[in-house]
Specification:
Length: 169
Amino acid sequence: MAPADKMRGGEPANLILKGTTLEGDLRFGTQLVVAGVIKGNIHCESMLIVERGGRVEGRIEAPLIVVHGELEGTVLATQSIEIWSGATVGGDVAARSVRVDEGAMLTANLLIAADLPDRLGPPDPVQAPKAAPVAAPRPVEPPVTRSQPAPPISPPASFLSPGPVTDRR
């Protein structure tokens, strides 16, 4: 592995090590390598690498995203996203180029297009579900039934009744 301060391409790297959890709105001017957990709005001006065992979730923007671990949320890769074997990616993903290796799990709404925006728009405001109008309560009235006397029932024939008389000779 490359020295900790320079990863892929010789560029300085920000390292989020295993056992570290960051939450919030985070901006990185250089390469970001995640072996821990990051939750929130993440903007990386360079490459984002999610190592095996690492997890990133939230609104994620980076030119190039390489996933060996887990990535979940609204993702914009302005150049490309690579999902390696054993990685999982879910949510809404937009990229100009996508690579998915055999054994990777991609369960996302996926948009691959050349004319993507350079930035994600503002998050949609969370709206409470609108309650349905409530009608004024009405008293419950018992159902009206009109009963009529049942027709007379003829008594059942008995097994012991003599039955019709027949001439036995």
